[in-house]
Amino acid sequence: MAYSGIILILIFLIVTYLLSAYEKMMDWKKTVEDYCHMYQDVFNPMLVKLSIIIILGIEITLSTLIGIALYEIISVQSFFYAPYAFVLSGFLIIILLVGLRLIKDYSGSSGLGIYFIISMMGLFWSQYI
Predict the structure, then answer these.
(1) For the chain, which residues make up each domain, given as ranges?
(2) pLDDT of 87-117, one tens digit each?
(3) CA–CA separation, 13 and 89 (whole Å)
């Protein structure tokens, strides 16, 4: 029960990133079309596609890391991997934020703030238990 807050934050993040990665992979063609359209004034389509692949790779890596952190917390009450998961989550959100700011999607970029705050709360909490 003492670790339930961190566990819930990690579950929230794993659902967020797993679903995002799943949606990108299951509808790859539409994802590429949508992103190319969004970023047409900023990047060429090949760079957009490369960016999607990099983001997808980070989301899959992050989901795996969060899964390992959850297992570790539940099974041995250790917090070795959790801080790394929270830092990588914050890093991914900053990457997404830069992309949204480049296309001047201010409402979308402000929406990312809550995910960043949640990740940093988890980081703070996991380092001081």
Answers:
(1) 4-127
(2) 999 999 999 999 999 999 999 999 999 999 9
(3) 8
